[in-house]
Design brief:
The complex is a heterodimer of chains A (179) and B (92).
Chain A: H1 15-21, E1 35-38, E2 41-44, H2 49-52, H3 61-70, H4 84-96, H5 100-117, H6 120-127, H7 141-146, H8 161-166
Antiparallel strand pairs in A: 1-2
Chain B: H1 4-7, H2 24-30, E1 34-36, E2 51-55, E3 60-64
The chains are: A mainly alpha (179), B alpha+beta (92).
């Protein structure tokens, strides 16, 4: 039985005792105690700060640790244990960096720029194929899935590999800029 | 062409590698393309507006230099491999 709780902003630790008593038949059980809403992202409260910070798009383990050491947070301290002043400091540091939507926009702009100029890299993005010289005879699944997503904004045609081929190699059928 | 070559670049103290084209000014003025096999030539500011025909091993592909292309090589704009297209063969 899944025990799922979303009491926004309030830890419900009293429910933990029920979680142990009720027999758990499912293979896994979800117990989310509470989330901290910071800069547009929900962060799990009970996690260590340096781990919770990785939940931001654009922050990985290294940057998270750097932020924690910059603000003198203890290595094992949890998000729920931070005071309000510390949280303000944290959001101040985070708002200086390019993360989340700003970063996504930047990446998309870079790819668009390459496509606009007409470089080889831009063409590979438009085709949805690997960019860094990998083999395409087999093994290009991730590239076919992810590459060139930023170029597919104005789609009116079903974007399948077949239509991409049919419409020509160096002209992404769905990109705004045509060479 | 390895895109990573753009990233692991030439040492700065050496200066960028580029080729002196004799008819560059003529090309910018009149629009006549310059045929070249120098794919490794870095695009410099004085080349803006020129039209090149860059070799890709077999043919010469047209490249028109704009301001955003500075710092890249001529070969980046001249693809070397033919696109993969699948045509079902009728021979059975």
């Amino acid at each position: 039985m899944d025990v799922i709780l979303f009491r926004y902003g309030q830890p419900a630790r009293f429910l933990l005792q029920f979680a142990t008593i009720i027999p758990l038949y499912s293979s896994y059980s979800l117990l989310i105690t509470s989330m901290l809403h910071l800069l547009g992202v929900n962060l799990p409260d009970q996690k260590v700060v340096s781990v919770a910070l990785t939940y931001f798009y654009g922050i990985g383990p290294l940057t998270a640790r750097k932020i924690c050491s910059r603000l003198s947070f203890h290595k094992e301290c949890k998000l729920s244990e931070l005071t309000e002043g510390q949280l303000n400091q944290l959001s101040g540091v985070l708002s200086e960096m390019t993360i989340e939507n700003d970063l996504k926009r930047q990446v998309a702009a870079n790819v668009q720029h390459l496509r606009q100029i007409g470089t080889y890299v831009g063409k590979r993005h438009a085709m949805g194929l690997p960019v860094h010289g990998q083999r395409t005879r087999g093994n290009s699944v991730t590239a076919k899935k992810l590459n060139g997503k930023m170029l597919r904004k104005y789609s009116t045609v079903a974007d399948t590999a077949f239509t991409r081929q049919a419409m020509g190699m160096f002209q992404s059928p769905l990109s705004k800029h045509q060479n | 062409m390895l895109p990573s070559l753009v990233a692991c670049s030439r040492s700065v103290w050496k200066g960028p590698y580029f080729v002196h084209f004799a008819n560059l000014k003529e090309s910018i003025a009149s629009g006549t393309p310059i045929k070249t096999m120098a794919r490794a030539c870095t695009i410099m500011p004085h080349m803006i507006g020129a039209r090149f025909m860059v070799h890709n091993g077999k043919e010469y592909l047209p490249v028109r230099v704009t301001e955003e292309m500075i710092g890249r090589k001529l070969g980046e704009f001249s693809h070397t491999r033919k696109a993969f297209t699948y045509r079902l063969t009728k021979n059975k």
